[in-house]
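Encode chain A's predicted structure.
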Amino acid sequence: MGDAQDTYILYINKKTKMIDQFLFTVVAFGLTEPSLMTFDYETINGIKVPSKRKYAAANWDGQLKDNDYTITNWTNIKFKIDADKSMFQKPGK
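Encoded structure for chain A:
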């Protein structure tokens, strides 16, 4: 809690308008050097959600320092409520 000091730089895909990757810090855990995170998306009930993420140490130009990735896969993703899909539409649609 408290005052967040993290830094994020988003890379948004011009065609899909989705976040392809981002640089980030987690100062509260002592991580002041950036990591680069990438996503794979899956469509569930008509909504694109990240189902895989991987991240590794990088520099502020987005170049990896090594290939020592931490990978997280989410499977069997379900929504507990019947979400109004219109809230996920791009503005103006």
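The mean pLDDT is 87.
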